[in-house]
């Protein structure tokens, strides 16, 4: 293995000082002189035709400067694909979910803007709604979009091999219905933006976006401006996790339009109530899973039919449904696979991406199914996984799944081995199974996630490495760190390649006026792809520097090396100069030079086929084995999770602190979804619309966590790296549910497994302690 | 409008505030100390935690007029110029943060905890930070940061 100087070291996070000092600025922390505040007026019905909007009273209110309604956007709509652009900035003819935006107000303060919203009078004709995706499939169900009279927003039908024959030949076949919960991504920083529409036709926004270039395209299209007149400046981002901050919200469009109307800067900050009732949330999916096995427990076929609650608009739905299907062939050898999915429009807030996007639903179903069948066959949970796990391909070889997903590395078997050798699993028989009313259990999962995600459209990343004449360095990329640690990793890559110290490199955050265009932060793609671009840009800068040095020393560039900010001859290390000196030579040579290194990720050209489900969804695939220790109170049904062990193959951890943190945080977020997070809804209304009522894991709820790195050095990732942001989010729910089964003897197939569900099931089985 | 006096990070202020203004509004808007964050707005997430008379409070549910005459520390008041407080140093070294939005509140709750208890157990640390929600880290590195901070403060 090559010895790195910076990569793999536990350097402090790039952004840690500004964050611990409270000096880092998030979108809501910016203000401008003369700034107005924007609030969005929202619909009181989940499905209704808009007959008339009267804004006159609001406009007359002292302090109100402008009011915008849906018609002001001239019929513009947006969405993920050209044929699914079905979402307007504000509802125009019809509202399709409760609290959808119908108007926006700009006023001299936030209170006046909020009061003015109350004065906007909208006449509605209420329409019957449909809230359950399976109800939405029925003949005669209310139609939500005229362009989809059957309410099907997205459907795919893939068939690989011959599942019918495989089931007929199987020793055992099971069919079960699984369900995942209605959950929020749970970022702490609500969406916010400070927008200014310069009357010359130039937009500047400071917005809380984890993928600022999506927003840049939305604003250019919505306001009919060329991209070079839209400037999105990315502040610090207070958590992303997919969905809302990958997209634009009503407040974004209203703030810019109201700025255009008034000539003043306009700011909005959503309340958490708006986040919980109107922002993007995870799809909840019903998975009808059919699985076949041989007598020895080898998988013969999976047929999965997925019905997803899509909510009112399509958004990123086509990708969600692709992801929920394509990765079912990972991480176990699967010879036959059939997938039929239906994303249904319903009168609920819009479902979109969330960490573990798509895959978490179907992998949960398959993991639990596999254990249920192993139990019937009398095969141990470890053994069933080891028998089916994909082997790590030999160097230079590629493993291909039946749908042509290709793996160059697979650390699953090694991860399972590491997880079950850990005392949490290996010593489970030595610990008591019961204490008072509490029954203890340990569970296991083995899962996969993609890194370097692809979708349709633009995929490439770029980077610019700028050498200052004093030897300090700026890095410009289009990548956004919404907490995952990518600013640190990218900075480390520049230092590694140039032979500098980590502190010598300064990363500049995204400003679409100056930084290279980039797809954004989703699908665990930043280290893989922006990392590759950064590595190439640094190599390009180094080449230019070394050429100048070679000229000065009258040697060839190949003879020169740079390490720890010292430039020296490989054969004669005593011949040396400082990096600063080399930068000066390179910059001042002749009439002077400007050293700019450029690099691009070389991936993203191969088109992705959603309709057939064939091919790769990412540049590489991570593998996770997770064990969980917990106790279930057999009287109250309350589950206390005490321990997680996560063995994760991320290829190679480039910044171990961030990799551990992502594994720990992802798994705890998965824990919330496994045992308590869920929106309580009725007819499109969200009842738990505050942090008082929507429970997420606190410090006292979270287990002790041990992370074990499995190193596989993927040839396609920078320095061997693959994915480290989402894998443990996928592995946590099935491991928790498997541990609950170990404690209670009951298989739960619907998330979250709440105390109510546990008590009900214990009563049915006659195991309730009361 | 009501007149109030506050001592924030050692400085005295006389301010005219709306009766409905929260301490958070005054800190962020009137004093432009934006290190204190607003998350949930209902006193549940702890992003707006400040220290008032030695106690950690959620500034979003304290009315500014209730804080009249009180002494308050915000995150900006913790470091000594560019020199970090030992708690801040520990969070940097261990990596007890990711997106950073909960961090100011988390650090101030840690200060209140460690001022009272110099040798907290893991359980006491978790209990002491129960009012501060973090979605990113899973808390492992935060608990570790607090342990290291306690060591540093014991000297």
Detailed description of the structure:
The complex is a heterodimer of chains A (770) and B (155). Chain A folds into 3 domains: 152 residues, Aldehyde oxidase/xanthine dehydrogenase, molybdopterin binding domain (Aldehyde Oxidoreductase, domain 4, 2-Layer Sandwich), CATH 3.30.365; 169 residues, Aldehyde Oxidoreductase, domain 3; 331 residues, Aldehyde oxidase/xanthine dehydrogenase, molybdopterin binding domain (Aldehyde Oxidoreductase, domain 4, 2-Layer Sandwich). Chain A is 28% helix and 26% strand. Chain A has 19 helices and 33 strands. In chain A, strands 3-5-1-12-9-10-11 form a 7-stranded mixed sheet, sandwiched between helices. A 5-stranded mixed sheet of chain A has the order 7-16-15-14-8, sandwiched between helices. Chain A has a 5-stranded mixed sheet with strand order 20-21-29-30-33, sandwiched between helices. In chain A, helix 9 packs parallel to helix 10 and helix 14 packs parallel to helix 15. Chain B is of the alpha+beta class. In chain B, strands 2-1-5-3-4 form a 5-stranded mixed sheet, with helices on both faces. In chain B, strand 3 and strand 4 form a beta hairpin. In chain B, helix 2 crosses helix 5. Chain B is globular. Classes of the chains: A alpha+beta (770), B alpha+beta (155). The interface between A and B is large, with 57 and 53 residues.
